Write the structure tokens for this entry.
Amino acid sequence: MKVPASRGAELERKLIAQRFEMRSAPYALYWARGDGVVVTHYESGKFVVQGEHPEHFLEQFLGLRADGDAPTGAGKSAPRGDASAPQGADVTTIGGDESGKGDYFGPLVVAAVKLTPELSRKLENGEVRDCKLMNDESVLRVGAALRANVPHAIARLDPPAYNAEHARVKNLNPMLAALHAKAVRELAEPGVRVVIDQFANESLLRKALAGADIQLEQRHRGEEELAVAAASVIAREQFLLALHELSEEFAIDLAKGAGGPVDAAARRFVALHGADKLGAVAKLHFKNTQKLGNPRR
């Protein structure tokens, strides 16, 4: 589609805030990858979105649906099934979300939170929201408060275990499904409603949760659900704490994300500890590892 080049800086800031991997590309304002899509915004104004669900990107970042319609909620009916489904404020709901999947350094963390209607009412209009809309200080403070006051479960793969599992399955999504299933099963009770921020084909998570007596919903922008938002905060808090611990252990400021500051930190780490130790702090299949062989990239 066409997006004026004058919007390039605005869109780039939004993508950086959402922890997209950003790069330069020939004749492009920027190239970005994250959340299941690859985006290229050319100097001509041509805007290309590639991925399994490009329509969700267009709706989130441009306010457009792939068919050109206004986004759901702007005078349109809700997605199929949503109108009749019980909402989190009315029934006990388990929400799940993850953190660290786009970060080169640190673990992959999944958190699940169970909110009763009473707990939901207590948290409404408070500080709990999608962690991507919060700064790190707020995430750490609110995450700690949530862990002290709401039922939750955490499943985590630290870099050594992450690298071993990724080498075995060659795909992040089955790893995420297994972590989500582990966290949900810790909190599940018969018939409970479970909402997960969708990250892959729905059948993958359903298979991981086979046999669980739950009502599973997988949704894009699941953080609109309070329980999922709370889970996103706890998952991010746990990721930030783990990243800080690794930084302290190896005396290196391990940056978040996968951009330039991360490449610089990786070079410092290798210079200090050696390349053979990198798997203790980093997800080795990321392209950041390949860049270490060419520091000018």
